[in-house]
Amino acid sequence: MEYFRKMRGTTKSPPAVSLAEVVWSWLGAFIGISAVGIINSYVFEGTDLTLVIGSFGASAVLIYGAVRSPLAQPRNLLGGHILSALIGVASYNALHDHVWLAASVAVATAIAGMHVTKTLHPPGGATALIAVIGGKSIHAIGYWYVLVPAGLGALILLVVALLVNNLPKSRRYPEFWV
Description:
Blueprint: H1 2-5, H2 19-44, H3 55-65, H4 74-95, H5 99-117, H6 123-133, H7 136-141, H8 144-165
Helix pairs in contact: 2-3, 2-8, 3-6, 3-8, 4-5, 4-6, 4-8, 5-6
């Protein structure tokens, strides 16, 4: 019975954020994802590389919408994506004959690795998974996936977060670097 009681939760929903916070979050996400997309279009279009991966959408939620969260800090953003990409590519290379197993190993190991290195960033789990299920174009770039898109894309999002999140007096980013 105690097991099921834990599922009720212990606190109420957090309070709503101000309209200004909504606007700054929207602006940061728009500029950050636009920057990644534009650079992808002009630099990587027609190459085997891509700069846009789905996990960056989730990173945008954290670094522009939850700027004070430990999961949104630069160490977590960069380290989480890079470590998870490395683990995802290695998992695919080792287990590609069993995609379900490669995917499971990639995500679970990425979570463990991020915990151990203090770089927990939930979108990193998606970055690891994309390395496994991303298809031929992702598999073809191999370990380049760690640098482009995972590392470089996260770095671009970080630069935008530093610039946009520090414009209003009500926001400060980051809370910590290392």
